[in-house]
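Render this sequence as a predicted structure.
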Amino acid sequence: MKNNKIIIYIGLLVVGVLLGWLIFGNSSNENTERNQSESVKTNQMWTCSMHPQIMQPEPGDCPICGMDLIPAESGADGLAMNEIKMSENAMALANIQTSIVGNAEGTSDNQLSLSGKIMANEEANAVQASYFEGRIEKLNVNFTGEEVRRGQLLATIYAPTLVAAQQELLTAASMKASQPALYNAVRNKLKLWKLSDSQINQIESSGKVRENFPIYATVSGTVSQKMAEEGDYVKQGQPIVKVSDLGTVWAMFDAYESQISQLKEGQKINVTTNAYPNKEFEATVSFIDPTLNTKSRTVAVRATLNNKQDLLKPGMFVTAKVQMSEGNANQSQIIVPATAVMWTGERSLVYVKTNPNEPIFEMRDVTLGTKNGNMYTIVEGLNNGDEIVTNGTFTVDAAAQLQGKKSMMNASGSKTMKGHEDHSRNENSNNNENTKPIAQVKRIEVPSKFQTQLKAVFDDYIKIENALVKDNSEAAKKEGTSLLNTISKVDMKLLKDNTAHTNWMHLEKELKSSATSISQTAEIKKQREYFIHLSAHFINAVKTFGINQKVYVDFCPMANNNVGAYWLSMNKEIHNPYFGEAMLDCGNVLEEIE
């Protein structure tokens, strides 16, 4: 009996252990799996509940508001290191447009567009010269553009040398029976001066010396240049008029370096002109200049056109479509608008929309091919079906620069993750976490005169800022017009460096757009929205070119619907243009620009 109780107790203990393992073991496994799953999520990204655009690979504080970061849940807007996300409002204000690119094979873009003008055919030009010295007694050509015909009397010349030659002829004629060689030599001498046999016979038969001799046209055409006037004394061989046969004309085009490889003699072209927009003139490329114009970086391309109907006038501007060679035409090419491409002198860049459903963009380096009109051929860097920014590209780049992402002026991007130093912060800035990193921009050396002109733009910018600080929309509107005029006075020709010229060209366009928008509305909320974009581009301008004055970059984390916004100021004291008197001192100094 006692042994049976022991066996029962042992059995109950075993059953208890098994039940405990079944109940708590599975739960433990589930917890382990859950913890592992949470760990995986934790290893993805951490975000801020107030600022979901912040994404970091480890926990910490939000760089905008200082709140503790929380694990980004599934479906959160996780961005890659160099991706930038823009709000729908910012997209609309900057008029950012995108397009899907594709292969250009089998489209009209396989034609090369050239621009040029009509010129006289030099091969059909003739110069009517005087064959003997003398004074022009009568010039029968009255104006440039006059039509002349072969054999027409052009001028009458008094020629003292011919007077003496005629006297020699009359003397030799009296002795031609005894000295025929002398007689023939004198006649040949007159023939060298383009006197005909009938003229010589007339002098001989009349026995009189003529003082004035005619010059007849040897070709038919249009007088393109008068090279002498009545009363002028001309030497032997000196031109009197230049005659052009306009039955054929040349169309001269300029082809850029990138287009040379696609041009060959013998290619068919279709030429059009504004004078006859519905008429095409067919021609063939007859000549390609073997030398390059080092100033314009172009090569002259020529085609000869039939002009029997006298429709084409020298000086007319024309355009041509050149059929690309068969080898190039068979290649699949990606064509993008020139507005989509940013060129730094060393790199060509576009912004690609990486998420078809979200306004998320990433900069991409591309290799450019030929430029046909306002379109570029992309050799490398884009794929068929990619969606790129085609309007407002520089606005997207400005946003990337301000967020420390890879951009046009910041090829590597700024390190903004926790654990790395943010070198864009200045030692004099407020030493707290309620700031937002701003990217470094490489300074470009420009003439001091250009910096002075940019300083004038800055002065007008500050006037708009002060108006917004005081909640004065009418003053902001007025100063917006003033700023627009000042920007127009900046002389781009002062910039000799290609990179500087390209940067300012893009910045000028964006600054004018923002200034125009501010000047056209009296609604202060709208003005402040436009001021966000104006400030973003002008910060880039000041950091890139300098204005010979120390300025401060300020940042308010609560502006722009808690996304944050920047502005420039002349001192460290905060006067917030985005809230005015409501929150005048909201913001921090992020950087000093020397």
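Summary. The CA atoms of residues 203 and 209 lie 7 Å apart. The mean pLDDT is 77.
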